[in-house]
Amino acid sequence: MICPHCTKDMKLSAATHRRRATCGSIERSVKSGSFLPKSNLPVRTIVRIMQHWASRRPVADVIEDLRVASATATNWYKFCRNVYCYQGIQREVRAVLPTKKPIGGVLTADELRTNDRIASDRVIVENFFGRLKTLWSVCSDIYAWKRQNYDMLFQTCLALTNVHVRIHNLRAEDGDANTQYVNRLISIGSKIVKTKKAASRTYRSKRKV
Q1: Rounded distance, CA 121 to CA 53, Å?
Q2: For residues 119 and 163, is the Cβ–Cβ distance under 8 A?
Q3: Element (H, E) at 28
Q4: First to last CA, the chain
Q5: What's the pTM value of the predicted model, to 2 decimals?
Q6: Fewer CB within 10 Å: C terminus or N terminus of the chain?
Q7: Which InterPro entries match (predicted)?
């Protein structure tokens, strides 16, 4: 990012995740110029989008399941893929960006090993969501309480799950639980679509009569 005053590169602070101009007159967040400052999605929706991405669900599923705009779903998927591209942020969090194969080329053995490690990180994410849903029904079943309380409850569940994971390590069974939950959602969605199509066919047949 270039400072509009001194026209020099703005340096990124790993501690504050903000860019500061050499002349000291301007400071910018790393989110500046992106879609993030304009996003008004609630925490629960953002976490569910990240879960869909970690589970390798297509963008179309996010649009249908979470009722978000196509541009919103696409932008969040891009963010999930590129969030660790910012210079210096890899010192604060684990990098999860795999190396893409160059056009007409091949990846080196080291790059393949790195990609395998990144894939194993995705497994950790899936296992975490599986543990989350196993522990707290508010995160896995239909929510019937006050809507304005959901964010607070969800964040509490995330914090308690982190504590639980520190005491009881994640296991493959947690990932299986997440897969079962995702498959159940897909099954429910398919049934809803079939029911709507059957109702439409019945309605059209009655109209013809």
Answers
A1: 13
A2: no
A3: strand 27-29
A4: 66
A5: 0.43
A6: C
A7: HARBI1_dom
